[in-house]
Design the sequence.
C-alpha cells in the first residue's frame, strides 16, 4: 500500500534563528497577558525539536505561578506517541497530586505552543485542568478549518469540558509566528518517522 503524503509549509527559519528571535522579543504583559508562559512554551518546543521530537512545548501554572515546564517526547528518545507535551505535563501534575482526591484543578493552567490534538484534548477534559491556552492554532492543517480541535470533539467530551477554558493564548502575533515556525522545523521529519512504522 502506498505511503500517504501530508504536505506542510517549509520553515523559513532554523531553530537557532528562531531562538534569536525569541531572545530579541520584548515581553508585553500589559498588551498581551500570556506573553510570559507563551515564551516558555516555545522555548520548550525548540528543545523538543532539537531532541528529535515534534517541536511542541508547554508549561503549567498554579494560581498563575509557574510550577512546571516540559516538551514533547513522542519521537525521542524513542517512540512513545502518547507523550505529547500536554500529556507529559499532565502526567507530572497527576503524579504530584496522586494522593489528593479533590485537587482543585480549576486553579491550574496549561500552556502549550501548539493547539492540542484531539488525543490531548480528551486528556484535558478528563483531567479537568481549569484553563488551557495554546500559542498557535494551525488553521491550515488537514483536520483544521473554521472549527477548533476542541469544537470538533464528540459531545460527551464537550460535556466533560463544559466548565473548562480551552482557547488561543492572548500573546503577540510575533510569538504565534515563532511557534508556527518552530513546529514546521519538526513536523515533516516526525510524520515520516511515524509512517515508516507501517
Sequence:
Amino acid at each position: 500500500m502506498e505511503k500517504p503524503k501530508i504536505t506542510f509549509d517549509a520553515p523559513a527559519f532554523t531553530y537557532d534563528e528562531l531562538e534569536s528571535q525569541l531572545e530579541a522579543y520584548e515581553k508585553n504583559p500589559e498588551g498581551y497577558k500570556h506573553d510570559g508562559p507563551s515564551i516558555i512554551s516555545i522555548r520548550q518546543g525548540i528543545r523538543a525539536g532539537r531532541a528529535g521530537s515534534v517541536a511542541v512545548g508547554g508549561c503549567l501554572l498554579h494560581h498563575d505561578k509557574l510550577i512546571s515546564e516540559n516538551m514533547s517526547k513522542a519521537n525521542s528518545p524513542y517512540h512513545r506517541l502518547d507523550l505529547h507535551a500536554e500529556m507529559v505535563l499532565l502526567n507530572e501534575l497527576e503524579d504530584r497530586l496522586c494522593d489528593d482526591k479533590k485537587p482543585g484543578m480549576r486553579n491550574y493552567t496549561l500552556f502549550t505552543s501548539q493547539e492540542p490534538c484531539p488525543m490531548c484534548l480528551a486528556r484535558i477534559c478528563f483531567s479537568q485542568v481549569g484553563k488551557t491556552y495554546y500559542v498557535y492554532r494551525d488553521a491550515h492543517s488537514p483536520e483544521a478549518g473554521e472549527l477548533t480541535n476542541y469544537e470538533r470533539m464528540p459531545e460527551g467530551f464537550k460535556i466533560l469540558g463544559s466548565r473548562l477554558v480551552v482557547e488561543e493564548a492572548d500573546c503577540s502575533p510575533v510569538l504565534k509566528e515563532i511557534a508556527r515556525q518552530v513546529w514546521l522545523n519538526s513536523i515533516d521529519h516526525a510524520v515520516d518517522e511515524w509512517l515508516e512504522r507501517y
